Automatic annotation (TrEMBL):
One of its GO terms (biological process) is tryptophanyl-tRNA aminoacylation. ATP binds at residues 9-11, 17-18, 145-147, 185, 194-198. Homodimer. HAMAP family: Trp_tRNA_synth_B. It comes from the Bacteria. One of its GO terms (molecular function) is tryptophan-tRNA ligase activity. It comes from Roseococcus suduntuyensis. This is Tryptophan--tRNA ligase.
């Protein structure tokens, strides 16, 4: 049995991208592995969050994850800031990672935008904290979307350098598990940008709590081109938006993009979008309903997160203690 760690930021309502690229794949893992799923609020504040919203979004995220099928009996579901080991190990890793490594991270460049000088230093060292999230549990399997591949490589560089500098083999190698069709869902407004819950445009994404009318409207407005659908994948070359919508339909109906194209060859986007809307609504409506139900009982949600944090701490604290000993910190006696 492997130990699996994955995180999601409470930086907004989870999107279809989060669902297809991450959450949906987490559900079956609970039955096969020891899984830790973390709502990473420390990461979320690398970009300013309104405090009241952050709090609400953290509960909303917990409710959504449960609604999607994570079970507090089968996995450890918790909030990052409830377990101080993340921040502590993250600091140690700030001192292990090299500036040159961080300078290569494309997500920082994307998220910082043009005014890089105005980005928070937290955003810059985000990958170090992500390495700590994983290694505080010595997790070896990390299911993430394709957008996190570069950060995982960096986490391995950090683990290796720590081991080398402190003459140990304490931290294991991390393996990404990047899975499935539509491993990267793109923005509905720009097929070259990934769908993100923190994108300023709500029209760029499907949120897991969007109702049927909202989904229909967003899909109707989704950018496309004027050509009909081709019969095979090669015909989607250079048509990022078309490819994205085909990928989404394939993912929610559990088939391959090739099959979607075979079935819809020659169809225009007007008709295709209706099919897509119907499939999305059928898939997402039960999740939305369960999420709203869970949000009605905040004490029960908070209690589930508390139990998760206790279980997470029981694993992370001894690992953190050993990392500190290796670094040479005087133990508190
Ligand atoms: P933010 O915009 O705040 O970074 P996000 O939508 O990128 O939010 P994260 O919390 O950063 O979401 O990532 C949670 C998980 O969702 C990660 O495993 C990430 O790889 C995956 N993920 C995020 N966006 C997509 C996407 N567009 N397609 C597929 N997977 C995605
Ligand atoms: Mg992200």
């Amino acid at each position: 049995m492997q130990r699996v760690f994955s995180g999601i930021q409470p930086s907004g309502v989870p999107t279809l991208g989060n669902y297809l690229g991450a959450i949906r794949n987490w559900v079956p893992m609970q039955d096969q592995h020891e899984c830790l799923f973390c709502i990473v609020d420390l990461h979320a504040i690398t970009q300013f969050q309104e405090p009241a919203q952050l709090l609400a979004q953290t509960r909303e995220m917990a409710a959504t994850l449960l609604a999607c099928g994570l079970s507090p009996e089968k996995c450890v579901l918790f909030v990052q800031s409830h377990v101080p080991a993340h921040a502590e190990l993250g600091w140690i890793f700030n001192c292990v990672a090299r500036l040159g490594w961080l300078n290569r991270m494309t997500q920082f460049k994307d998220k910082a935008g043009k005014d890089r000088e105005a980005a928070s230093s937290g955003l810059y060292v985000y990958p170090n904290l992500m390495a700590a999230d994983i290694l505080a549990y010595k997790a070896t399997s990390v299911p993430v979307g394709d957008d996190q591949r570069q950060h995982l490589e960096l986490a391995n560089d950090i683990a290796q350098k720590f081991n080398h500098d402190y003459g140990t083999d304490f931290f294991p190698r991390i393996e990404p598990f990047i899975q499935g069709v539509a491993a990267r869902v793109m923005s509905l407004r720009d097929g070259t940008k990934k769908m993100s819950k923190s994108d300023p445009s709500d029209q760029s994404r499907i949120n897991l709590n969007d109702d049927a009318d909202t989904i229909a409207l967003k899909i109707r407005r989704a950018r496309t081109d004027a050509e009909p659908l081709p019969g095979h994948l090669a015909g989607l070359e250079g048509r990022a938006e078309a490819r994205n919508l085909v990928g989404i339909l394939a993912a929610v109906t559990g088939t391959l993009p090739e099959n979607v194209l075979r079935e819809h060859e020659g169809q225009g986007f007007g008709a295709f979008k209706e099919v897509l809307t119907e499939a999305l609504v059928a898939h997402l409506a039960p999740i939305r309903k369960e999420m709203l139900r869970l949000l009605e009982d905040e004490p029960a949600l908070d209690a589930a997160l508390r139990r998760g944090a206790e279980r997470a701490e029981a694993i992370a604290n001894p690992i953190l203690a050993e990392a500190k000993r290796l670094v040479g910190f005087l133990p508190r006696r």
